[in-house]
Design a protein that fits this description.
This protein is an alpha/beta fold and 682 residues long. Helices cover 50% and strands 11% of the residues. β2, α3 and β3 form a beta-alpha-beta unit. The termini are far apart. The protein binds adenosine-5'-triphosphate and magnesium ion.
Length: 682
């Protein structure tokens, strides 16, 4: 019954897992939610659970559907499953890819000519915009340019469709959600309405229509529903915090009245709210999937304690993760005069972190917006460092892939056979022995073929080629040559690298300038947390004091979030000192320090009551935020406050160890405690 699975001893799959992970892998509870912070092994648990249940005979891997949200994450899931011996048996994919495969099958079975997939949405929307002059009268020339406008309207349409909001309900829906569109909402509503109408008239479907259609047919066509539910009986979803209402509805439809569902996610990494995602499906799992069980993981296996401290300082309410990795260097922050100087400095830093024999792919450069990638790519090119930008120069544009596709197209064999032939032929091609990139590309294509074969019960070459052209065109799988990866924070989710460079950490990018509401700013903070937690060993942060936008040079300010990282650096450096001091080894380096650090620093009896009051406030605040006390404020800073007794914000800012971030966050509480402990006058 286990199909193409290498038999594995189930116990072997549990080796090295901690107790909570083991529980998450083996529990019979369903539906199951695994809730845990970044790098705690959620994806690992998901894949091991599939493999474990397969190995114990509890499921047939060919009946598993493992869902995620990006093509890249899907290809990572499938390679992790392969490494566990499941080879190509398990269907993995994005919601879109799976829905599309199912619809294609239905269209073929029922003889319906498939509609055309609209994948250049912004261009289509641009043609539907009213002429400039009719938009805002004489001030039209100061309005946004058509491309920006089309982009913003497209965002609104995508948000609305993800939330299952029709054009007629759009205006009410944004008000109810507190959403502040970047375009005139009335205009967005009008264009959205025309968009739907035009699309239908031309028999086009967009990506969201695929989800909607698939769900609708499951609801109204029992035979189709039964076929899908027969094919996929065990559902798994990674990164579940990013599900939107449309995806959730489709997931419910796939599941039917069954409960074999396992979701894993982290509410602190919810970064697609702007796009319509809703982390409540994860947060309130019990409500949406009654009777569900939850397993929580708390150990972090990815990042050094220094990187975790920075992450926890940026998002103090994140689940408190226990570090398992050895100490590493503290994160660094560098400021450069211009964006091009920043790009050059990063290229140099990438080289400095690339000892002979190391892999370039152990480093990534992450930025907030796509536009920031270009100058960095240019600097890397100039220094001869191989790099890869997600989304650019797609797999399907590579010459060797084009050649292989031409051959495939001519093949009359069933897809599986055609893929097997291709695999054999590749092994015999001497030209590929010296072209690792081309070989890796072809291997990636074959893998995609197997992915598709898992999704379609009677896969054909034609079906695969059509699916490939429509779903993979702009996306690249990651199996390519050794190269530094360039990506946006969003695209980096779920991934990890030993060395991570975060560039352009400036106001306007981090947080992004259009984030104004509390909810939007909270999402920006989570996004930064996601970026930091990609790093295993080293985190290098940079920002530039000026940046070119077109032909203009604009002065920049550093990201306010850097204050938190800086503080974490200072605190971890200090606690490292304390640890060293407490250890028995003689520490000559520390013998001439300014003051003893291990002992309670507040000295005079007059200062002591205030100092103790501050400490108990800090303990409370640390508990509430689930962070170690020193992340709130260090003992030495509390002692300084007790000594200086600041009466207002300005004098509080004079206290060493208190920066604007700390003053904003804790100033009010501190000043209240100081006022309550006014010294008694004789
Ligand atoms: P994210 O929230 O970023 O998606 P995650 O919770 O999915 O992270 P994983 O990617 O599964 O975390 O795991 C992070 C890293 O820790 C991976 O390299 C994984 O192999 C490793 N890891 C997880 N659990 C263990 C373990 N018990 N022993 C050793 N390594 C582990
Ligand atoms: Mg993960």
């Amino acid at each position: 019954m286990l199909g193409k699975v290498t038999p594995v001893n189930p116990e072997q799959l549990l080796v090295g897992l901690n107790d909570a992970q083991r529980e998450a892998v083996t529990t019979a509870a369903a539906p199951l939610r695994v809730l845990a912070g970044a790098g705690s092994g959620k994806t690992r648990v998901l894949t091991h659970r599939v493999a474990y249940r397969a190995a114990t005979g509890d499921l047939d891997p060919r009946r598993v559907l493992a869902l995620t949200f990006t093509r890249k994450a899907a290809s990572q899931l499938s390679s992790r499953l392969r490494n566990l011996g499941l080879r190509d048996a398990v269907a993995t994919g994005t919601f879109h890819a799976v829905a599309y495969a199912q619809l294609r099958r239905r269209w073929a079975d029922t003889g319906i000519t498939p509609p055309t997939l609209l994948d250049r949405k912004v261009g289509f929307v641009a043609r539907l915009l009213p002429p400039r002059s009719s938009r805002s009268g004489s001030s039209a020339s100061r309005g946004p340019d058509p491309a920006t406008l089309a982009f913003a309207v497209t965002s609104e349409i995508e948000w609305a469709k993800a939330r299952q909001v029709t054009p007629a309900r759009y205006l009410d829906a944004i008000e109810a959600a507190g959403r502040k569109p970047l375009v005139d909402p009335e205009l967005a509503a009008r264009v959205y309405e025309r968009y739907e109408r035009e699309k239908q008239a031309q028999r086009l479907v967009d990506f969201d229509d695929l989800l909607h259609l698939c769900r609708r047919h499951i609801d109204d066509d029992p035979q189709f529903a039964e076929a899908q539910r027969w094919q996929f009986r065990h559902l798994f979803v990674d990164e579940f915090q990013d599900a939107n209402p449309l995806q959730h509805a489709l997931l419910r439809a796939w599941l039917g009245d069954r409960n074999d569902l396992c979701v894993v996610g982290d509410p602190n990494q919810a970064i697609y709210g702007w796009n319509g995602a809703d982390s409540r499906y994860l947060d309130d799992f019990d409500r949406y999937f009654p009777g569900g069980a939850t397993v929580r993981l708390v150990q972090n296996y990815r990042s050094s304690p220094q990187i975790l401290a920075a992450a926890n300082a940026v998002l103090p309410r994140s689940s408190q993760l226990i570090a398992n990795r050895p100490d590493g260097p503290p994160p660094s922050i560098r400021v450069l005069p211009t964006d091009s100087a920043e790009a050059a400095a990063i290229a140099q830093a990438v080289r400095d972190h690339h000892p002979p024999g190391a892999r370039w792919s152990s480093q990534a450069i992450l930025v907030r917006t796509n536009a920031q990638l270009a100058p960095i790519a240019e600097a890397l090119r100039a220094s001869g460092i191989p790099f890869r930008v997600r989304g650019a120069g797609g797999l399907l544009d590579q010459p060797e892939i084009k050649a292989v596709l031409r051959e495939l197209r001519r093949s009359a064999a069933p897809l599986q056979t055609a893929l097997a032939d291709l695999d054999l032929a590749v092994g015999e091609r001497s030209d590929l022995a010296h072209n690792a990139d081309a070989a890796a590309n072809i291997a990636a294509l074959i893998r995609l073929g197997h992915d598709y074969a898992c999704l379609d019960p009677s896969p054909t070459v034609t079906g695969f080629l059509a699916w490939l052209a429509d779903t993979v065109r702009a996306d690249q799988p990651d199996e390519q040559g050794d190269a530094v990866e360039l990506a946006t924070f969003h695209a980096a989710k779920g991934l990890e690298w030993p060395v991570v460079h975060l560039a352009g950490l400036e106001m306007g990018f981090v947080p992004i300038s259009h984030a104004t509401t509390a909810a939007e700013l909270a999402e920006e903070r989570r996004l930064f947390y996601v970026a930091i937690t990609r790093a295993e060993r080293e985190l290098l942060c940079t920002w530039a004091e000026s940046r070119m936008f077109g032909s203009r040079t604009t002065p920049r300010e550093r990201s306010p979030y850097l204050d938190d990282i800086e503080l974490a650096i200072a605190n971890t450096a200090e606690s490292a000192d304390i640890d060293q001091r407490r250890s028995r080894r003689p520490v000559a380096r520390n013998q001439h320090r300014r003051e003893p650090v291990g002992a309670t620093p507040a000295a005079t009896s007059e200062e002591r009551p205030l100092f103790e009051a501050l400490r108990s406030w800090r303990a409370e605040a640390a508990r509430a935020a689930s962070v170690p006390p020193y992340v709130i404020l260090h003992d030495r800073t509390l002692a300084e406050i007790a000594r200086a007794r600041p009466g207002d914000r300005v004098s509080l800012l004079d206290v060493p160890g208190i920066g604007p971030a700390k003053a904003n966050r804790f100033g009010e509480a501190i000043l209240r405690i100081v006022a309550a402990h006014a010294p008694e006058r004789a």
